[in-house]
Amino acid sequence: MSTKRRPLVMGNWKLNGSKAFTTELLTALKAELADNPACDVAVATPALYLAQATDLVAGSQIKTGAQNVDVHVSGAYTGETSIEQLKDCGATYVIIGHSERRQYHHESDAYIAEKFAVIKNAGLVPVLCIGETEEENANGQTFDVVSRQIDAVINAHGIAAFNGAVIAYEPVWAIGTGKTATPEQAQNVHQFIRNHLAKFDAAVAEQTILQYGGSVNDANAEALFGQPDIDGALVGGASLKAGAFAAIIKAAAKVKA
């Protein structure tokens, strides 16, 4: 690699946690990471616990993030959370396009691209989730799906929008199922993603952090991080256990050193 990309390991807590859990987990995680491994680290808590989490990790290498954002900054949008509110609570990263949002909330590529711009305009880091279903994978449509999901952002905002952004490739068939792509399968898609970005701008492609997500755990992390285009991980269930999450972080720091 001509550019040294610092790995990013991010935990997505999804609909889990409480005030007590947040304190317990982040206190334990800070202790686990006391040796400050060379890896960017973040946790995306439920929005209710974002401010608490930000206070708890102050002074550590851990940053906080959100799992979603509305496209509106303020106004009569009952139940929504704006980018300014997330920023006010200390968020650095915002996950968008997760397959669960696409499936359960019917979020389109174009709508996700709107969210991407809102996050960038606020000076925060979008983590754009992309990935194919099991049926799409079986039909050989993986590259078509991920390029379409990326192109929605490029067509709306230009390739430069990916400067300082993160793309998380998460095959839908591997999320929460215990299944995971082999390191070689994951690398194949990550390489395609970077090459696809490079068609528009090689420099942007080279610096973009590409995470893998989909049943990442402390047992398979090191092999995944050994691939040249996998720069980190978006971690689900394993991020709810301080020891397992810390092991993934340390694996990234070790392999990418």
From TrEMBL:
Subcellular location: Cytoplasm
Known pathway: Carbohydrate biosynthesis; gluconeogenesis; Carbohydrate degradation; glycolysis; D-glyceraldehyde 3-phosphate from glycerone phosphate: step 1/1; Carbohydrate metabolism; erythritol degradation
Catalytic activity: D-glyceraldehyde 3-phosphate = dihydroxyacetone phosphate
UniProt keyword annotations, A-Z: Cytoplasm, Gluconeogenesis, Glycolysis, Isomerase
InterPro entries in alphabetical order: Aldolase_TIM, TIM_sf, TrioseP_Isoase_bac/euk, Triosephosphate_isomerase, Triosephosphate_isomerase_AS
Source organism, top-level taxon: Bacteria
One cellular component term from this protein's GO annotations in UniProt: cytosol
Residues binding substrate: N12, W13, K14, G176, S215, G236, G237
Record's keyword annotation contains Cytoplasm: yes
GO molecular function: triose-phosphate isomerase activity
A Pfam family that the UniProt record links to this protein: TIM
Function, as annotated: Involved in the gluconeogenesis. Catalyzes stereospecifically the conversion of dihydroxyacetone phosphate (DHAP) to D-glyceraldehyde-3-phosphate (G3P).
Quaternary structure, from the entry: Homodimer.
Family to which the UniProt record says this protein belongs: Belongs to the triosephosphate isomerase family.
UniProt-recorded name of the protein: Triosephosphate isomerase
Organism annotation: Psittacicella melopsittaci
Gene transcribed to yield this protein: tpiA
